[in-house]
Amino acid sequence: MHPLLRRLAGGDRRSTGLADEVARDISQASNLFAIVVDGMTVDDPVVRMRAADAVEKASRAQPDLLQPHKKTILTNVATVVQSEVRWHLVQLIPRLRLTANERKQAIALLWSCLECRSKIVQVNAMQALADLAVQDGRLRKIVIERLRSLAVEGGPAVRARARNLLRGSRNENA
Fold this sequence. Notes:
Elements: H1 3-6, H2 19-26, H3 30-39, H4 45-61, H5 70-74, H6 83-92, H7 100-113, H8 119-133, H9 137-153, H10 156-171
């Protein structure tokens, strides 16, 4: 395992360990960023989770860091079912510049994440879908429909996020 990924190892999934420190490091070096993107698929669930956290944090201010890794994110990382990885994965998707086919693939992934057991994954997937729908009127109508149903039938956190997103869509003349 690469020494950078070893910094993310140890402990359990209840802590972020050195993910913030690694996020700072990788935001300044694209070669290190690539290592941590690959770390999102390693065998160790703690490393996977913390790698996903570091990639998400580093890409907040610099979303272009993700672009060279778009295929890896949409294929390899998308197959990881670990909730802690998924909730960061869905946050990454709206930061990517996607082709039409990649966009379809990403939207399908986000729809599937609405069915995850993790409420964090669900609310982050809702947010990502809403973010993608801003530029796509057809998707926007479908997302608003789904948000309306989740505002009634989801768990408390899901209902609250759906209501907030629906309020935001009304403010943007939904």
